[in-house]
Design a protein that fits this description.
Elements (H helix, E strand, L loop, with lengths): L1 E6 L4 H14 L4 E4 L8 H4 L4 H8 L5 H20 L4 E6 L2 E3 L3 H13 L4 E3 L7 H10 L6 E3 L3 E4 L11 E5 H8 L11 H5 L5 E5 L3 E3 L23 H28 L3
Parallel strand pairs: 1-2, 1-3, 5-9
Antiparallel strand pairs: 3-8, 4-10, 5-8, 6-7, 7-9
Helix pairs in contact: 4-7
Length: 263
């Protein structure tokens, strides 16, 4: 496995943070200097198609979105050019690794033996409460186990959940890198799934954005997303029942799609 950390070259504090965390885990990694659209060359910017982005999303991209898409594209390209390893772990420089080294390598081994092309290891702007909420309304169908405690499988829906940490194999890296003009959000997993790439997730998440210690560099709020709440008990009860009903319904659909039909 190759590990690449996407980070702005001038983000010294974040690089020190990653160095400390990876030293503790005794993991070898490389930094990929993130692309900053406000200072990079026109030649680099020409690799991003803003018109196509607008056609896809109905709005113009922000500079942060352009930089993120180009930076993750660069990380995957470097992986294909520099190594014959099977798997690439891409992390952002605010990633918080919430597992042991043995657990991480066990997950990588399961991923390499599975039929999946991409494995999302966690979401941005997520805490324990929001992870529980997401796993209820957008459930994971456990198809594999790592260390008998970490489930791996597909979700009902692919959402824009951030790129704080994910695994890709050579097949998915090639397909994602062959896009001649980058025009999608770096975390548009729904789009990438339409490239005939099979995407899975871990439960529990093993990577999260460390938004409590590190400030955002993309003008994002430094707190977790939160599920809907209401002070009226009867509305809270209805929301609770609706959420769990939809979650159960979606998990049954997942079972039919991936188990009975062996997708």
């Amino acid at each position: 496995m190759i590990i690449k950390v996407v980070s702005l070259k001038q983000a010294i504090d974040r690089r020190k943070y990653i160095f400390k965390k990876f030293s503790n885990l005794r993991l070898i990694y490389d930094f990929v200097d993130a692309i900053e659209p406000s200072t990079c060359s026109e030649e680099i910017l020409s690799n991003f198609n803003s018109s196509q982005f607008k056609n896809l999303y109905g709005r113009s991209p922000t500079l942060a979105e352009i930089g993120a898409s180009l930076s993750h594209h660069l990380a995957r390209k470097k992986f294909l050019e520099e190594s014959d390893q099977k798997t690439l772990l891409v992390l952002e420089d605010d990633a918080k690794i919430m597992c042991t080294k043995d657990e991480l390598f066990s997950i990588v081994k399961v991923f390499e033996q599975s039929k999946f092309d991409i494995l999302i290891l966690g979401f941005s702007k997520c805490d324990d409460e929001f992870e529980k909420h997401i796993n209820t309304i957008n459930p994971i169908l456990p198809m594999y186990k790592a260390m008998r405690k970490i489930s791996i499988g597909p979700r009902y829906l692919h959402t824009t959940s951030g790129t704080v940490g994910y695994l890709v194999n050579r097949r998915s890296s090639k397909k994602m890198s062959n896009i001649s003009k980058i025009s999608v959000l770096s975390d548009d997993w729904g789009y990438f799934s339409k490239l005939d790439l099979k995407i899975a997730y871990t439960n529990p998440m093993i990577i999260r954005e460390n938004f409590t210690e590190l400030s955002s560099q993309a003008n994002h709020n430094n707190f977790s997303q939160v599920p809907f709440k209401d002070s009226r008990n009867w509305i809270s009860l209805l929301v609770f029942l609706r959420k769990h009903f939809y979650g159960l319904y979606r998990k049954i659909l997942l079972y039919f799609i991936f188990i009975l039909y062996k997708k």
